[in-house]
């Protein structure tokens, strides 16, 4: 199953600040490694990941985390493929641009969206996208993948 993974989820692989979120992120990563979930992100997400990680890690550690991030992804969605939809979403929703990148990417590749951002999940759902706010809906997400909680 194709899954667009928000930066708010993947950074938890490298942080113990929220142990419950770290466990969920580890589980998502294992499912990706086993081929049970195909993880994608927009190119913006890659850059956002680097920027967020660099706030907490030294440059070399950030580069190592970036390699792990890329190894978990099945692909990155190029901006030029979603720019028209991004523009339209901005006109229609007046929502935060970073969230729109993940929503547009999920729509473009026909994926579900996972995030730890309630506002992003709510907007995605209101647009008809299957999305999971993992802080509260991780069990439902894992069921959707066909794995038990």
From TrEMBL:
SMART domains: PINc
Superkingdom of the organism of origin: Archaea
UniProt keyword annotation of Magnesium present: yes
Matching InterPro entries: PIN-like_dom_sf (IPR029060), PIN_dom (IPR002716), PIN_Pae0151-like (IPR044153), TypeII_TA_RNase_PINc/VapC (IPR051619)
Residue ranges annotated for the PIN domain, each copy included: 1-122
Keywords carried by this UniProt record: Magnesium
Protein name (record): Nucleotide-binding protein
Source organism: Thermococcus gorgonarius
